[in-house]
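If I may wish for something, please walk me through the protein I am sending here so I can picture the backbone:
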Amino acid sequence: MIRDKRRLDPETGQVREPVAPAAEEPEVAGGDDNAFAGDVGQALPGDGQDEAPAAEGDGEHPDTQLAADRLEDLRRLQAEYVNYKRRVDRDRARDRETGAATVVEALLPVLDDLHMAKEHGELAEGPLLAIAEKLEATLGRFGVERLGAVGEVFDPAVHEALMHLPEADLPEGATETTIVQVMQPGFKVGDRVVRAARVAVADPA
């Protein structure tokens, strides 16, 4: 197309009014697979530029593992405390028995004298009898137990036979070796024998 751009009309000699150029229609890309849609720089859906959200790790959360570790520590401390308490209770009972046994060993001469006095009838009545009974009651509160009595079956674990009397009278119905005389009573504290009872025994006929 040829446009006459002269400002003067060659026929009339007048100045021509400028004619506004016709607006050109934008070219539309037709059917191009690589064409953009929308603003420049905006990625098309499905072009592979959208980032997928980061997947969470398969491992446990750190707080969960920390809680498990603390629980295991607590269980271990509790087990240690239970074992400690058992050991302390056992040692306390053993120390108590040891202390009581030490006292009984120191009082053995006094207890033997009281036993001999009772055998000879000197503790039938009076203040001395009350003192002897209070002493034995006090020792009993600490787990002290007297060993040896006439008529008991002889037990070598807690009795010591000093004499064997074949002609001694036994309790009716006795079928085992039996104590017929107590020369010195024995004493034990808990399972600990402080002194075995020294006795005379006899066998059934």
Observations:
- The radius of gyration is 57 Å.
